[in-house]
Amino acid sequence: MVRVRHFGGMAAIKNLFSYAFKGIHLTLGGLGLLLTLTLCAPAISQAQVLGDPVDVSQDFQKMENVYFIGSRLASFDTASGQGTLQWDRYVRNTTLSFNKIDVGFARARATEFPGTEYDQDPSLPFSITFVVRARFGCAFRRVHFRSAMETL
């Protein structure tokens, strides 16, 4: 409730408006503080603590990372299970179409210095080995041995 002292007509109206605008200013300030706390709360709650599992999914959303995606099997020997895979270099790229921004992958060129240090699209070796797992069932049995005194 706003109390207005007896002033002249225009002074009372100006005084009333100044109180009303101060209230709006305080309300907007409170909303701003609430909005700031709401937006900063996830960042505070997601702080990394020693021993917590590392979430690597955020690294796959960054635009500055270079991605190597396996594109084709360069060679493979079926007898030994060894071969080479060609990895193509990609970066995240934005495109604007129909008033919508899409984020996809685009082929990239090597940006390392010197340019001859790393391959543009490396072909790296790999091997396939099969693992045989053998399981044996064991059960604990109580074996009763007779002593030499019991046999007499």
Would you mind describing this structure in some detail?
It is a single chain. By secondary structure, the chain is an alpha+beta fold. It folds into two domains: 42 residues; 68 residues, no CATH class. It is built from one helix and four strands, in the order αββββ. Strands 1, 2, 3 and 4 form a four-stranded antiparallel beta sheet that branches. A hairpin with a 4-residue loop joins β1 and β2. The protein starts with 8 loop residues before the first helix and ends in a 25-residue tail after the last strand. The mean pLDDT is 77.
Topology:
Elements: H1 9-45, E1 66-77, E2 82-97, E3 100-107, E4 123-127
Antiparallel strand pairs: 1-2, 2-3, 2-4
Major beta-sheet overview: 4 strands, antiparallel
The total count of helices amounts to: 1
Radius of gyration from CA coordinates: 36 Å
What's the number of domains? 2
| SSE series | HEEEE
Flag low-confidence runs. Answer: none
Strand tally is: 4
- Please give the alpha-carbon distance between the first and last residues: 110 Å
Beta strand %: 25-35%
**Helix percent band:** 10-25%
Query: Oligomeric status of the shown chains?
Result: single chain
Give the structural class. Answer: alpha+beta
Mean pLDDT: 77
Shape: flat
